[in-house]
Design goal:
- This protein is an alpha/beta fold and about 250 residues long.
- About 35% of the residues lie in helices and about 20% in strands.
- It has helices at about 5-25, 45-55, 65-75, 110-120, 145-155, 170-175, 195-200, 210-215, 220-235; strands at about 35-40, 60-65, 80-85, 95-105, 125-135, 185-195, 240-250.
- It has a seven-stranded mixed β-sheet with strand order 3-2-1-4-5-7-6, sandwiched between helices.
- The longest helix has 19 residues, at about 5-25.
- Bound molecules: S-adenosylmethionine.
């Protein structure tokens, strides 16, 4: 799986879902102007931009291990304090932030519990630490039609349903393992409209994330088979897809 891809490719593939998700997710942080916020696994900045709109660009920091995403975020929001770093090793002091958020990141962390614990370390006492992850296990995430179509063609293909936090309740379990006690779980759903089948399909060929890596590993016949399988599963265009993410937030400090 790779996020060492152009930010424009990411935006076309996942940004179309993560940008509207960020509109809702940012509200879980209960922030106001002047507070300091950290976006962990910021990508090209869907959530970072919403945090900047609430607290002011100069009051936001962001990290991501992907070099092209860090560069893209710096171009998009030059006053944000952005670093190339993983959640598990944040380059900040204890208690630096009034909210610490990770949108669609926990399932990609090498060690999700260590990442959440580290997010708690850099949060001020009683600040919200929040995360969300698509419902890949329950089949209501944005890639559900794709993975179902893949399994119609290749029943043994790997998918994202076993990743951390993608089943109901698992994010809260991970927060608990990371030492949080005041935990609040929920879900958010977004709707995205597609004018044509190709508008939906084409970004799957850009090599982004596990789905893009899967397509990139197929030969031409394999790509054509998955594409037609997807077409058979989706409604006639234009169509609208809904995508649901599990959310969990917890107060920092015991
Ligand atoms: C699905 S993208 C989400 C990006 C952005 N938060 C959004 O909502 O559009 C997952 C991001 O997690 C980043 N990532 C992967 N492993 C990470 C880790 N251990 N710590 C922090 N971020 C990580 C990737 O580089 C990628 O930018």
């Amino acid at each position: 799986m790779s996020f060492d891809v152009a930010a424009t490719s990411y935006q076309r593939f996942m940004g179309r879902f993560s940008e509207p998700l960020a509109d809702a997710f940012v509200r879980l942080a209960d922030l106001e102007r002047g507070r300091r916020a950290l976006d962990v696994g910021c990508g090209p900045g869907a959530l970072t931009a919403r945090l900047a709109a609430v607290v002011g660009e100069g009051a936001v920091a962001a990290v991501d291990p992907s070099e092209p995403f860090v560069r893209a975020l710096h171009e998009r929001l030059p006053a944000v304090d952005v670093h190339r770093a993983p959640a598990e090793d944040l380059p900040f002091s204890d208690g630096d932030f009034d909210a610490v958020l990770a949108q669609l990141v926990v399932h990609f962390m090498a060690d999700p519990v260590a990442g959440l614990r580290e997010m708690g370390r850099v949060a001020a006492r009683d600040a919200w630490v929040a995360a969300c992850v698509w419902d890949h296990e329950g089949g209501t995430g944005p890639l559900a039609a794709f993975w179902q179509a893949v399994h119609d063609v290749d029943p043994g293909a790997p998918d994202e349903s076993g990743l951390a936090g993608t089943r109901e309740g698992h994010l809260a379990e991970l927060f608990s393992e990371a030492g949080f006690t005041r935990i609040d779980a929920g879900a958010l759903t977004v709707e995205v409209a597609f004018p044509t089948f190709d508008a939906w399909w084409e970004p799957f060929t850009l090599g982004v994330g596990p789905a893009g890596s899967y397509v990139a590993g197929l030969d031409a016949d394999g790509v054509a088979a998955v594409r037609e399988s997807c077409r058979a599963r989706l409604p006639d265009a234009p169509f609208t897809l809904t995508a649901t993410a599990w959310t969990t937030r917890a107060r920092a400090g015991l």
